[in-house]
TrEMBL record:
<keyword id="KW-0479">Metal-binding</keyword>
<comment type="similarity">
    <text>Belongs to the SurE nucleotidase family.</text>
</comment>
<dbReference type="GO" id="GO:0046872">
    <property type="term" value="F:metal ion binding"/>
</dbReference>
<dbReference type="Pfam" id="PF01975">
    <property type="entry name" value="SurE"/>
</dbReference>
<dbReference type="GO" id="GO:0008253">
    <property type="term" value="F:5'-nucleotidase activity"/>
</dbReference>
<feature type="region of interest" description="Disordered">
    <location>
        <begin position="16"/>
        <end position="50"/>
    </location>
</feature>
<keyword id="KW-0378">Hydrolase</keyword>
<dbReference type="InterPro" id="IPR030048">
    <property type="entry name" value="SurE"/>
</dbReference>
<feature type="domain" description="Survival protein SurE-like phosphatase/nucleotidase">
    <location>
        <begin position="52"/>
        <end position="244"/>
    </location>
</feature>
<dbReference type="InterPro" id="IPR002828">
    <property type="entry name" value="SurE-like_Pase/nucleotidase"/>
</dbReference>
<protein>
    <submittedName>
        <fullName>5'-nucleotidase</fullName>
        <ecNumber>3.1.3.5</ecNumber>
    </submittedName>
</protein>
<dbReference type="InterPro" id="IPR036523">
    <property type="entry name" value="SurE-like_sf"/>
</dbReference>
């Protein structure tokens, strides 16, 4: 052991390492090897083709993402790049994993360059546009979806599929979020394939006009599809409603909560392991210093002060569910009402509230999407 590190720190690290479970070092080493083996994002791509970036909120293995990416690849006109969460992050909103280590792993998706990450959809978009992973920093278009469930009205604040498109807008990149009004016991996986068929003309129109330089700047499209996409009555430009669902909290037993934690729990990422090692080392050093100090301390009990009452910590467990609320809001041009009536809802969102931007967006939607329905 060299003399560049203080003896106390060396001792702390040795003790923390000795207390680690067998095989943890191998796991960290394996992850490091995997990271170094990540393929270049430009491998097999045609540099003459525009880049289209896709993310979602339901996770890398969701059918909405799979059908959409397959259709874009089959078009053959784009370099399709994908980053999606490892698991369902549908209601994580616009959350960002600051000060956390994000694990990024390559995924085999035919015809596309794809990764799964341990973060949120906003992390996916931010990482993609940062230039840290891909060779490009600004694709022509960002698509977030297709989400299993609607993102009407106030639900946009919970919806991470909308947040993914919003993050692209923050970077000045045109974006589209897509949600399917999935209904339990009624919807089926093939509805996502029908949803892609409905969305593709709008995506192609946006890509065409972005390349021509005539696509309005500073706005994003929120596409809400009816439960049966193939039977839709057409596209309707809508306004964001005040529709919302109720959060219903239910107390659950500690046994059920612990079982759920074991079922959903994943091994901590490499960064978390290192952080835990550092905490273990600090704790080991602090304990040793306290033991040393106690040898030289005479403990004196105070007679005049009553001892502090012992605090008993209680732990309870709750689980939240979103329950649909009966919305009385009137107006056929509202997002949820259009979808209820069988239309595809198309709601523009803006980086800033500007009447000129609003007019430009509505003019584009009218000429590029609505004409010829």
């Amino acid at each position: 052991m060299n003399n560049f590190l203080p003896p106390g720190l060396v001792s702390n690290l040795q003790q923390a390492l000795a207390n680690r479970r067998p095989g943890e070092d191998d796991a960290v080493s394996s992850k490091a090897d995997d990271d170094s083996a990540l393929p270049s994002s430009s491998e097999g791509e045609d540099s003459s083709k525009p880049v289209i970036f896709v993310t979602n909120s339901d996770g890398i293995e969701s059918p909405g993402l799979s059908f959409l990416v397959d259709a874009l690849v089959e078009e053959g006109a784009y370099n399709v790049n994908v980053i999606a969460p490892q698991s369902d992050k549908s209601t994580s909103g616009h959350s960002v994993s600051l000060k956390e280590t994000i694990e990024v792993a390559s995924v085999d998706v035919k015809g596309a360059t794809a990764y799964e990450i341990s973060g949120t959809p906003v992390d996916c978009v931010s990482l993609a546009l940062s230039g840290a992973l891909f060779s490009w920093t600004k694709p022509l278009l960002v698509i977030s979806g297709i989400n299993k469930g609607s993102s009407f009205g106030h639900h946009m604040y919970y919806s991470s599929v909308v947040a993914g498109a919003r993050e692209a807008l923050v970077y000045g990149v045109p974006s589209i979020s897509i949600s399917l009004n999935w209904q339990k016991d009624e919807s089926q996986e093939s509805d996502f394939k029908d949803a892609v068929t409905v969305c593709l003309p709008i995506i192609k129109a946006a890509m065409r006009d972005i390349e021509k330089g005539v696509f309005p700047k500073g706005f994003s499209l929120d596409l809400e599809l009816p439960t049966s996409p193939s039977a839709n009555k057409g596209v309707k430009v809508t306004k964001r409603s005040h529709w919302r669902s109720n959060l219903n909290w239910q107390a659950i037993s500690s046994t059920r909560a612990q079982a759920a934690a074991r079922f959903n729990g994943a091994q901590p990422a490499m960064g978390l392991n290192i952080a835990q090692l550092s905490r273990d080392a600090s704790a080991a050093g602090a304990a040793r210093r306290l033991t040393t100090q106690k040898k030289d301390i005479e403990v004196v009990e105070s007679v005049g002060v009553s001892p502090k009452a012992h605090f008993k910590r209680t732990v309870k467990y709750f689980r939240a569910e979103m329950l649909n609320k009966d919305n009385k809001e009137d107006g056929n041009d509202l997002d949820f009402r259009a979808v209820e009536n069988g239309f595809v809802s198309l709601t523009p969102s803006y980086a800033s509230v500007d009447s000129e931007a609003n007019a430009a967006a509505l003019n584009w939607i009218t000429s590029a999407v609505l004409e010829g329905q």
